[in-house]
Amino acid sequence: MNKPVISQEFKLLTGAAWKKFIEAEVKKRDIPISKIQNLISSSEGDCVGLINEIEKLSLSDNFQSQVSSLKFKADFFGAIQQIARGDLKAKLSNLEILLENDDAAKVFNLLAYTVQPEEQIRMADYDAAVKSGKLEYEEVLLDFML
């Protein structure tokens, strides 16, 4: 005869229960809660996901760079919007972060989809230049912003 299956339900944590859970977990691992603020807001209720990320951070010597990278990945489309419509400083900083974490072709294609209609012809010309081997995606992205 087979042993009975044991199951356990995990309720979605929000508000004070979510905060209490996080505080207990970071205390166990001796990580300052300030180091994971962006993870807290981007993963509310996802206990397993948050614990996995906290575990990765607890094993690393460089908390801040990893947390910044994780925060940015959660806001990929926001960065694309900044490149399409932001000021030069925002464009350049967002492009740098995007290119550290993602493929330049992906960034270019999503940006081409996002730009204003009057800029779409320019993006099509860039695309032709890249595909013909005259330019690289990184060069095109920088030229578009400048």
Description:
- This protein has 146 residues and is mainly alpha-helical.
- It has two domains: 15-74; 76-145, no CATH class.
- The protein has nine helices and no strands.
- α5 (76-85) runs antiparallel to α6, α5 packs across α7 (104-114) and α7 (104-114) runs parallel beside α9.
- The longest helix is centred in the N-terminal third of the chain and has 15 residues, at 15-29.
- It is elongated, with a radius of gyration of 21 Å.
- It starts with 14 loop residues before the first helix and ends with a helix.
- The mean pLDDT is 78.
Topology order in helix (H) and strand (E) letters: HHHHHHHHH
Number of helices: 9
Mean pLDDT: 78
Residue share in β-strands: under 5%
What is the straight-line distance between the termini? 72 Å
Based on CA atoms alone, the radius of gyration comes out at 21 Å
Task: Kindly state the percentage of residues in helix.
Answer: over 70%
The structural domain count equals: 2
Oligomer: single chain
Pick out the low-confidence regions.
Answer: none
Going by helix content, strand content and strand pairing, the class is: mainly alpha
General form? elongated
The count of DSSP E runs of length 2 or more, i.e. the number of strands, is: 0
**Most strands sheet:** none
